[in-house]
Design brief:
The chain contains 13 helices and two strands. It is mainly alpha-helical. The protein has a two-stranded antiparallel sheet.
Length: 287
């Protein structure tokens, strides 16, 4: 499809692999913005979205079992989140840029929403210039990630669902303290152990993000760049905020900062616990 859109075979193969792996690397310095082709951008939007779906769900969809795909709660949340935020951001872009027609505004919005939400990191526009309010929305998107069982990084949508449902249940338990109400996902009860695991993961994720931002600020980076670099690397996103935003890169980061951000990328890619357990003394203690 990318070749049909005008890409060379070499560029098409590289961008296809980078899209499905949610890697975000491009053969061009300007990323996908280099190709001023609406068709190419919509194709990449579609396949970034597909790459963010749980692969088992993609398998069922390819087998023709679309009903099972739609019954998956994480897929529904992921779809509504992507479409809802995309439409909202696109509407804001359309309003603040009177000379821009509707389709380009929506394309810019959906491309960046899906690129950041799936932690792919391709770039077609500067989302930090679309009002501070939109910048905050994209900062929040950096904490979401796509579906579990996909190539996406980040926290993952399913963990956000469990955290949200557990928070609602805690409010209900304040009203009905004797009630036993389990957290349910896809109409099945989630064990308390799994809920605690998700809460622990999210807390550790936030702690690592904060520590990362503090360490990066100690290297001389301003506040926005420090938090942007930290969350972009922990979430394996690529573009962040400030001087590491969508139109910039990490070339100006100090050698120490690059080593530290490399460690954050490793932590984020291996889902935190895998690496952190190696740093604990009880892992190395003989029985």
């Amino acid at each position: 499809m990318l070749i049909v859109g005008g890409m060379s075979a070499f560029d098409a193969i590289n961008h296809a692999m980078s899209t499905l792996s949610t890697g975000g690397f491009s053969t061009k310095n300007a990323s996908v913005a280099y190709y001023e082709s609406p068709f190419i951008q919509w194709v990449i939007i579609l396949f970034m979205f597909i790459a963010g779906i749980n692969f088992s769900m993609t398998y069922f969809a390819l087998k023709g079992n679309l009903g099972r795909l739609w019954k998956n709660e994480e897929f529904r949340y992921y779809t509504f989140l992507s479409i809802g935020i995309g439409l909202f951001v696109g509407t804001v872009i359309y309003i603040i840029h009177p000379g821009l027609s509707f389709e380009p505004a929506m394309r810019e919005a959906f491309f960046q929403v899906v690129a950041i939400g799936t932690t792919t990191g391709f770039v077609t526009g500067d989302y930090t210039s679309w009002t501070p309010f939109i910048t905050v929305i994209f900062f929040w998107l950096m904490f979401t990630g796509a579906s579990a069982g996909s190539t996406s990084g980040g926290v993952k949508v399913v963990r956000h669902i469990i955290i949200f449902k557990n928070s609602i249940l805690e409010l209900k338990k304040l009203i009905h303290p004797s009630a036993v109400i389990p957290v349910k996902l896809n109409r099945k009860a989630v064990s308390e152990e799994s809920v605690f695991n998700v809460l622990s993961f999210f807390l550790i994720y936030l702690m690592i993000f904060i520590i990362g931002a503090v360490v990066m600020a100690s290297t001389g980076l301003d506040f926005k760049t420090a938090i942007g670099a930290s969350i972009a690397c922990v979430g394996n996103i690529g573009p962040g905020l400030g001087n590491v935003g969508p139109l910039d890169n990490y070339a100006a980061i100090s050698p120490f900062g690059k080593w530290f951000l490399s460690f954050l990328m490793l932590l984020g890619r291996l889902e935190l616990f895998t690496v952190l357990i190696l740093l604990t003394p009880f892992f190395w203690r003989k029985n």
